[in-house]
Amino acid sequence: MRIVFAFTGAGHLLKESVEIYEKLAKDHEVTVLLSNASYEVLKMYGLYERVEKHTGARYCELETDSNQKYSFPITGRLSLGNYDLLIVSPTTANTVAKIVYGISDTLVTNAVAQAGKGRVPTLIVPVDINPGDVDTVLPSKLDLLKCEKCESCTSAEVCPENAIIPHKEISLLNCVGCKLCKDSCPYDAISVGQIIQLHMRDIDIENTNKLKEMELITVLEHPNKIVPYIKDNIL
Predict the structure, then answer these.
(1) Is the dihedral of CA 35, 40, 41, 47 positive or negative?
(2) Quick one: residue 13, left, alpha or beta (phi over 0 = left, psi -120 to 50 = alpha)?
(3) Pairing status of strand 85-91 against strand 2-7
C-alpha cells in the first residue's frame, strides 16, 4: 500500500501515533506530512528522528508546511488517487475545525481536501473526541520550586541545543527531548513526561461529531485502532 501519514501539533496521542507510523512504514510506502506545529512538537518530545529515519525514498518522503510553500504540490498525488489511504493522527482541534468548515490552508488540511477529490479514504484520530477530562503527557518542564538556582547549572551545561534558561524555564522550541537535562540535575528540578489533565471544550467535541458525517472520512478514537481498521477495511 501507499499511505500518507500526517501529524499535527498535538502532544496527546503523539507517541502512540509515531508507534503506529513505524509499524506501517515497515510494510508499506509511507509519505509523512508535518504541519509546522507537529515539526516542533515531535522534536520537543524527542520523536522526530524516529519518524525521519523511515523516510527518504520516493513515496516515502517527509514534507512540511515550510518546504511545500503555499501550493502544497505533493498533495496533488492524493487528488490523482496515487495513494491508497490518508491518516491524520493525532489531529488537533484546530485542524478538525478547518476540515469541517472546508478550510485547506495548511499542508495537512489541504491533503484532506485533495484526498476527498481523489476518492482516497481518510482516517482521522482527533485528540478532542469525548466530553470530559483527558490525561496527557507534557514535554520537558522546569519546576521552579525544586530549582536551587545553582551558580553553575549542570542541566544548561549539558544541553546540546542551549534550550535551558537557568533558573527560569526550558525553551521548548529549542528542546529536542534528549532528557540530558533531567538526568544531570541533582535536585530533580526537571521533569519529562509529566501527566496533566485537560478538559475537552464543547465546541471541539461538536466539530469532531461533524467530522464523522463527512464523506470518505472515518474517525477513530485511538491510534491503536488504525492497523485493525486497515486490515478489516482496506487490505
Answers:
(1) positive
(2) left
(3) parallel
The distance from CA 183 to its chain's CA centroid, rounded to whole angstroms, is 26
What's the whole-model pTM score? 0.91
**Phi, psi (rounded to 5 degrees) for 199:** -100, 130
Q: Which three three-digit cell numbers place residue 52?
A: 525521519
Give the number of other Cβ atoms within 10 Å of residue 126's Cβ.
Answer: 29
Per DSSP, the three-state class of 42 is helix
pLDDT tens digits, one per residue of 84-123: 999 999 999 999 999 999 999 999 999 999 999 999 999 9
Residue with cell 499542508: 107
- Phi/psi at 140 (nearest 5 deg)? -60, 140
Alpha-carbon span 10 to 92, nearest angstrom: 6
State the DSSP code for 225: G
The Cα–Cα gap between 20 and 73 comes to: 26
Written as one letter, the residue type at 109 is T
